[in-house]
Amino acid sequence: MGLIERLTADFTTLKGALRTLRMTTPIAKHPTRVFPQVVLELADTYGDAPALLSDRERFSYRQLAERSNRYARWALTQGIRKGDTVCLMMPGRPEFLAAWIGITRVGGVVALINTHLTGMALAYCINVVSPKHIIVAAELFESLQGARAQITGAAKIWLHGDATANLPRIDRELDGIPGDALAAADRPVLTIEDRALYIYTSGTTGLPKAANMNHYRVMLASYAFAGVMDTRASDRMYDCLPLYHTAGGVVATGALLVRGGSVVIRDKFSAHEFWDDVVRWDCTCFQYIGELCRYLINSPPDPKERAHHLRLACGNGLRPDVWPQFKRRFQIPQIIEFYAATEGNVSLFNFDGKEGAVGRLPWWVAARFPTKIVRFDAERQQPVRDEQGFCIECGIDEPGEVIGKIMKDASRPGQRFEGYASEAETDRKILHDVFKKGDVWFRTGDLMRKDKNGYFYFVDRIGDTFRWKGENVSTTEVEEVVGQFDGILETNVYGVQIPGRDGRAGMAAIVAKDNLNLTALRDHLAQQLPEYARPVFLRIRKNNDVTTTFKQKKINLLKEGFDPTLTTDPIYFNDPQRKAFVRVDPALYDRINTGEVRL
Hints:
Strand order of the largest sheet: 2-1-10-9-11-12-13-14
Largest sheet: 8 strands, mixed
Helix content: 25-40%
Number of strands: 29
Oligomer: single chain
Strand content: 15-25%
Shape: globular
Distance between the termini: 41 Å
Radius of gyration: 25 Å
Number of helices: 18
C-alpha cells in the first residue's frame, strides 16, 4: 500500500468515523431520549413524508407515530409493565415496526421471533424469555400452534389478522384505541439502559440465543449507521432482510428514519424480483447480508440491473470472490462492508472499499475501541495462554479470535456486553484476565487476521474451523476457493469424523450447474489449496440449507457425514490413489471407516 493510497484511505476513514461519532456521541448525553421518543419527534418534523413502504401497507412518519401509540395504549391496558416481555411473530411489514416501537415506548420488552421457526426451536425461543403475551400474525398461527405443547408458562396469545382460531384479535383491538400521544403521566420513565428487545442469533450450529438489546443499542445502531451511510431525507432504503434481525430490523430501518428518509420493506428476498423492486421504488441504497449478493451474481442478466439509482450498498458477509463481480456487473458506486454483533462491543467499518476487508481500525480510532486478535487453539476451542496465563496477541496476517475490551465507563456504553437471556450463554462469551489480571473482554466467536495496513479480514467462525493432518482448516477459505470454480453456485464446507482418525476430514456440500467437471474441479483444488485443506469428500445437492440471513446450516450435514445411506445426494471421495473423485457406495464407506483406504 503506497503512501498516497494510504493517505487517501486514512482520509476516507476519518470522514466516515467523524460522521459516525457526531451522530452517536449525543446518545449517552441524553439518557431519557429513546428510539420510541425519536419516532414522535420525527412525526413532528416530517409529518406526511413517507417513512415505511411496502406493497402491503404504507406509513408516513405521522401514521407510524399514531400506529405505535395505539400499540403503546394496548400494552398499558393489558397491564404490561416495565421489563415485561411480549413475543412478536409477524412477517416483514411496516406494522412490525409500529408494534415493537409502541410496546417498548411503555417499557415492554419485545422478543422478535424468527418467523421460520417451528416445533422445539420455536418453543425454546419463546420459553427462554418468559413472555406475558404473544402476538402472532394469522399466516404464522399454524407454526405457533404446532409448538404450543412445548411452550411453558401462560402467555396470552393475540392474533393479528383473520384466522379460524378462537383467540382475541389485536388488530381489531387497536381499531378502537386512539392514536394520539400518551401523556407523560401515563408512561414510565425510560432510559437508554432499559432493555428494549430480544434479538436472536441465527442458530447455524445450535439453538438460537436471545441477545439483550437495550434502548442504547437501538439508538446506537440507528444513528451509527446513519453516519456510516451518510443517510439523508432524499434516500430510500431497499430492505429485504428479516426484520427480526438487527441488520434488517434496526440498522436498515433506523438509519434512514432518523434522517427523514424512507424504507421499502419486502418480507423475503427474491433474486428474480430484486432489480424490479429497486427500480420501481426508486431506491438509493440497500442492505445486504451473507450470500444475497452471490445469489444476484448467479442470476441471469436482468434488463434493469443497471437502470437503478443506487448510490451505495451496505452490509456484511460480502466475500472477496464476489465483491469485484458484484460491484462491476451491477455498477454499484459504493460498497460499505462492516462487522458487528447485536450483543457485542466489536464494530469494524470498511469506509474506503478495500475489497475483502471487513473494516479497519486506524491508530487514532483503535485507542477508543480496544479490539485485539488473539491466538486460538482449534482443538480446545479456547484462546492460547502463555506461561503467565495471559492471552497472546497475533502477529501480522496471523489468524486468531477477535475480542473487544468490556468497559464500565458510563460515557461509553457501547463498550459493554449486554449478554443474553440465559446467564450461562452470557458467561461463555466473556474472557477474564486476558492481558492483565482483572481485565474482561468479549469473545466474538470469529476468527480474523489483520494485515500490515490495519485491515481486518474474516477467516472463519469458531466451531467451523477444524483440524486435519495436524493443520487448521478454515471452512470460509476453502468455500471461497471451491466457489471460484466455474459451475459452482453454492458451497458449504465442514469437517466430518472418521473412526480411528485424528481431527476431521474436510467435506464440501455444493450446488452446481449441470455437467459439473469433477476432474477439472479436482485439479483446481489441487492448484489452489494445500493438501490438508482440500475436501476429502464432495456432496452434490440441489439446494443447500440456509438460515433466513443466508448463513449455511451445517447441523444435519454434520450428522449425516459421508454415509451414502443417509441421503439421496451423490457423495464422492477424493481418492489419492486413483487421483479422482470416486462415488461413495456402502462398500467404499465401510472400507474408509475401517481404515483400509488411504486418505
